[in-house]
Amino acid sequence: MMAHPDTLRELLNRYEALRARPGHRQELDDVSYTLCVSTGTRDVRDAVRVARAHIAGVYAA
After folding, report:
1. pLDDT for residue 58
2. Nearest residue to 55 via CA among 44, 47, 22, 33
3. 11 and 51 Cβ atoms separated by less than 8 Å
4. Which of 61, 17, 20 is nearest to 9 (CA)?
5. Per-position DSSP letters for 3-56, written without gaps between them
6. Residue 59 has what pLDDT?
7. What does the pLDDT look like over 4-58, one tens digit per residue?
8. What pTM was estimated for this model as a whole?
9. Cys staple from 3: which of 9, 32, 38, 46, with CB 3.0 to 4.6 Å?
10. What InterPro entries does the database record attribute to this sequence (predicted)?
11. Alpha-carbon distance 44 to 28, whole Å?
């Protein structure tokens, strides 16, 4: 089951913002974990890729 595209977009935005700011490691870890769970992946790079593809696919249809 995949999370709603709006939820994935929010998680991606938080992930990108936290990556750009040093000193927020725990928050970044939490968002990374949530992205993985929400996309059914185990690696945050895969989670980001799957989330982006899912969002693009939903809104392209």
Report:
1. 73
2. 47
3. yes
4. 17
5. PPHHHHHHHHHHHHHHHTSTT-HHHHHHHHHHHHHHHT-SSHHHHHHHHHHHHH
6. 64
7. 999 999 999 999 999 999 899 999 999 999 999 999 999 999 999 999 999 998 7
8. 0.88
9. 38
10. DUF5133
11. 10
